Amino acid sequence: MPIERYKYITLLLLLITIPLARLFNINTYAIVIFLAMNLLVNPRKVYSFRSSSFVLFIMYSGLIVLNLIFINQNNSIKSFTKLIPLIIVPFALLYVKFDKKALNVFLYTIIIYCLTCIIYTYYISKGYIFFYHNPTEIMQIQSNYLSIFICFSLCILYTNILEANIINLKHWAFILILFFSLAVFFNRASIIISILITLLFALTYLVKHKNWKLITLFLAFFTISTVWILNRPIVKTKFEEIVNTDYLNITDYNNGINSRILSWKCSIENIKNTGFWGHGINNSRSLLRDCYKDIAGENSVPYLEKYNSHNLFLQTTMDLGFVGLGILLLIYFYVLYVGITHRDYLTISYFIVIFIFGLTESFLNRQWGIIFFALFTPFLLNRKIGQ
Fold first, then answer.
1. DSSP result, 269-312
2. 189-215 pLDDT per residue, tens
3. Which of 154, 199, 236, 351 is the most buried (most CB within 10 A)?
């Protein structure tokens, strides 16, 4: 049916524009088109309904609405507009038939975006590609988000290999591009995630196919690649920061590690008084700034840049209280439960991606993270409905 084809096309449009939230607001237009096509045009045929996951998203979104209405705070309308995809995108996905080709489209898209950023960085840095500090500026996306999309693309690629029981030339080329991109974008969390999901893939492949020869070759390639990535100049410096930081006597809060420690410290301090329902989505940022000012001063980077908690779970507790944290953890638990129950590598590895990313970033504060989470969480859960 033509209508089903158009609905699928709007889904693909949404997928390929996730990293483009700031580039001419392309992703925002894609969201509107996707929602209009699936909610307003022939909204009768429901392909999938995993009640538990959808109810959890309703609960989480409903709590956000109540928080914005009943807790006194500024910019409530703006926050509601930004967060509304958390409920509408999962609902619209009920009317879209799952097709694994959509995941491959996301994989190919990220490959193209990575190559674009690498070529741009090589040109702008005059060849000093591993010394450039803003390699994703041409896409107007923070490198940590594109790096996380790379990790999920690796998950998709590894799933394709598991299903095909072969690593062909295309797979090797894609893996090489994605690993190289991680070295250029130098995000610590994504490098750690890539190691974990790759080791999980190797174990899963070995258990499923028992091909020792192929997995030995792959692990040798992976080990060499990982050592090479960790020895790139900025990557090496960033991991040395973790080892060399004096966590008990921090006085300078202006680098990546120290600023996050300050954010976590201030978040925990505010959580002590957060109450059952939280401080309010738009009040948490000002509370954190007050804490940054008291500890690090008005000239500190966290204060000037208005840093959030840099931890999804701490941020959620501050914003929505322990009720919000509980619902968020239920969503996470459900993803892991479905992955383990169905022995599904893709869903389990997706859980690893969003869990570790959530430990270092409040990713539901950015459109990249909101749409990524709201789209792929129900999408991956719905793919198991017919099994």
1. HHHTT-TTT-S-TTTHHHHHHHHHHHHH-TTSHHHHTT---SSH
2. 999 999 999 999 999 999 999 889 989
3. 154
